[in-house]
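Issue 218. Parser rejects a valid record. Input:
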Amino acid sequence: MTHPEGDGLFAAPDDPEPVAPHHPGLGGPLAVRMRPQTVDEIVGQRHLLSPGSPLRRLIEGSGAASVLLYGPPGTGKTTMASLISTATGRRFEALSALSAGVKEVRAVIDAARRRLVEGRSTVLFIDEVHRFSKTQQDALLDAVENRVVLLVAATTENPSFSVVAPLLSRSLVLQLQPLSDADIGEVLDRAVTDDRGLAGAVTISPDARAHLIALSGGDARKALTALDVAADVALGRDGPDSTVGLADVESALDTAAVRYDRDGDAHYDVISAFIKSIRGSDADAAVHYLARMITAGEDPRFIARRLMIHASEDIGMADPTALQVAVAAAQVVALVGMPEARLALTQATIHLATAPKSPAVVAAIGAAMGDVAAGKIGLVPPHLRDGHYAGAAALGNAQGYRYPHDVTDGVLAQQYPPDDLVGVDYYRPTDHGHEREIAARLRRLRSIVRGLGGRR
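Output the parser choked on:
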């Protein structure tokens, strides 16, 4: 049986685990010992595990649909697959898309067919299924369709874009959410007191607990591995004190704690300072606040979203490439992940901080929406209305419309806004950066379009 690399909350049974300290009298890494053994021990994912839900029914042995579990690392995908197998009495087979090919897939399916003749069914868990080629995914279709195997596939990528349509249509797609800080706190607290975990051998200070939560990034395995190392530091000290403190966590992880609470005032203070530093064109300060957020375990997707918003809000057309750079950084976060994505976030931060600034985009949509809210909407001019239906011409729709490409410059005099808004300027470019060029062109365009001069 081939096992996955294990990006789930915990690895499947018998998975090789990363080396971690073994505390006296306690066998195996903490993440292994604390693997949920029942559905009620799973932390988080309440939206998928309510009584009677398809996933809960699968785990409890009464469901039969194949599932695609879609979510970030450390949220429980592999654990759920293991529990589905245990609850139903099925054989558990696991493949990793990182190492398995069509040959391995077919071998598992052939074994499952033989097992089915003997009256025993099979759960096939495939980790990183989005890395399977179309041919590899197609090899699963018949077995899934005829329930030779109950497929439980895990992916960190949106399956709508990474899994073939026939396999999607044969499976129930369930999206797992990152574990919240409260969820990670519950995982840590249980590990400290549970007989399978540290069994009360240590206590953990509030600062150390908060730092472990911040560093976990919503990944329970990461949090437990960090606690395991920190507990080993505490237990190795001379003297009766076995409290895991902030210094123990820092010593174990070689990472300085940052005063930063993702749900508290510091979170809003730091992100506010980050954006204001970019707006103020201080690239160095912006990179400092970026480093604080990254070190504290801030969700990189949150940082990327703020950069994309800022690219239009405070830069806009003064540097039209700013939005492209911000979007590209967000794509790197999604496709590559941390820690490498910190480089793209830094590049985008520096680009935005050093770019010319303009609030004209915000002002334009604000003024336009203000007029709409005030009732200044008017009728669409008849010549701009849709004319692609019977009777449109009789109503005067699309009559007299002038096609701009019929003239050399591609711009001609024609009314586009409703009557009440003719001559209203919403977009007012500054003389910063690229907007200086846009301003000159816009004056000429408005003059022609509004029939005030220039080429007709």
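Fixed in the parser; the record now loads. The chain has four domains: 36-175, 181-253, 265-354, 375-449.
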